Amino acid sequence: MIKHTRLMNYLTKMKIPFYKPLLAATSAAILASCGSSAPAIVSTPIANIDTIPLKVTALTDAQFKNWPEADLIYDTIPGMSVDRAYSEIIKDQKGKKVIVGVIDSGTDIEHEDLKNVLWTNEDEIPGNGIDDDNNGYIDDVHGWNFLGDAVDENLEYVRIYRELKPKYEGKSASTVSAANREEFILYKEAEEEYRKELNETQQNVSQYEQIKSQLVAAHQAVSSQLGKEDYTMEELRAMQATAQPLSQYKAMLLQIQQNVNENIPKAIEELDGAIDYYKEMLEINLNLELDGRAIVGDDPDDLSDRDYGNNNVMGPEADKENIKHGTHVSGIIAAQRNNGIGMDGVAQNVEIMTVRAVPNGDEYDKDIALAIRYAVDNGAKVINTSFGKYFSTHPEWVREAVKYAAENDVLIVNAAGNESLNLDEKMVYPNDQTPENSVEISDNFLTVGALNYDYGSKLVADFSNYGKKNVDVFAPGNKIWSTTPNNEYEYLQGTSMASPAVAGVAAMIRSYFPKLTAPQVKKIIMDSGLPVQANVIVGGDRLNTKEFSELSTSGKIANLYNALILASKVSK
């Protein structure tokens, strides 16, 4: 999902098609907790939100940066009522520390807003080269890096196609033995996907380069006519252009400015990003000659080969670009609250355990299975998994790890994916489903779809996957402000951003109501969400509308305020 999230941030504003892509509550009060970590709550849940009027004014910059914490009733913004939960329910209550495992691309543990919320393995003596706690990982002070020095990687279907090509190229189903039939089918599916994506990516590079060429020519001509590089839409409209091609250029630029709502140089920059993305796809993710795993030194098809990786959870690259995704996810969950800098994460009382297992490409099932087990064995009570793929060679390893987490009372919060797909029809990995995509293997796995900041028909982010059986709840995922490497902050979007928002809610429940089990926390998040009965646009296609209640099992928007109220009742 990392690759899709990165691409969407280049293309969504440009409107360029991307890959596959209550009524007023009564006053709340807190009763004295008498020393208990669980606040006693007397409050009215938020309900009847279908009566809330639509927001008619555009969000301000401050509202955009904080919209996931907004309250739908007070702000008419479909956030998770985080600020309201803190001001009316949490107040000065002290909760229990909760470790949240972030399995991702890595996290900038030096970031100003994250360095004080890191999990530290107190049983490990840093830098002595000894596995002091005998957990199998040397000097794992803040987590573990299962990728070692690896960064770039193929997509899974590319790896499958490359591995099986010598065995099955040119063969038909009738010439393959019954024992090899399943493997042959996998090969043909991978081959078909590879050829399709290779062709589409090559076409996209060509198409966007042509668009850029036309855009640059138009911008240069108009800039010359107006005598300035940075012109407003009003100045462009007022420009006299009767002759061709200037008249044509003016019409083109006006259309782009209306879609993008920013200046043309910025639009060209966004387009450059899209071109770079597709070129990188060709050079790395779809490159049959790339062996990104070689530097790791293990056998990714041998689960017992576990002596690999290192403790550098920020990865090998000094510029930290490849840990942007994991850093952003970590900030959404737990960026230090009320420190006067940056932004506030959803949860307090959290320690982030960084587990690096997601490369620039598709993750390996072995790494994810071991990463889940590592997080469980070292005390995580919530694990966030903002990644995924549609081909898997060892899904059983990951499913067994999910079951292992369930046995140890650990909740896994998972991103649904960014291809506008119905997951009841298309299986994504990781998941908690049987191979037939019908029965859940455990009750500790919560899958999250992404919301847009517009309350109304555009409520669902146009990229978000959905599914009545296989997506559990929705949460803010479009234009999310959070931490990025080198003490910076940035807007990113994707279900990768919605998942950690819900992981933060789960962490808060486990902090203030520590006796609740992982299945109870999952059920509370689903049951306490805000129900929406209205029809919404799916996949950004105005002709494709569905009832929001049919897009997930709960049919609801995750809401911290309501979740804490319900948790208080369940915990009694």
The H-and-E topology, N to C, reads as HEEHHHEEHHHHHHEHEHEEEEEHHEEEEH
CATH homologous superfamily descriptor of the largest domain: Peptidase S8/S53 domain
Specify the CATH architecture of the largest domain.
3-Layer(aba) Sandwich
Q: β content, as a range?
A: 5-15%
* Oligomeric organization of the protein chains: single chain
Mean pLDDT: 90
> Please, how many domains?
2
Reported by name, the CATH topology of the largest domain is Rossmann fold
Gyration radius, to the nearest Å?
Answer: 24 Å
Strand order of the largest sheet: 4-5-3-6-7-8-9
Count of DSSP-assigned helices: 15
CATH class of the largest domain: Alpha Beta
Q: Into which percent range does the helicity of residues fall?
A: 25-40%
The main β sheet shows up as:
7 strands, parallel
Category by helix and strand content: alpha/beta
The coarse overall form would be globular
**Intertermini distance:** 39 Å
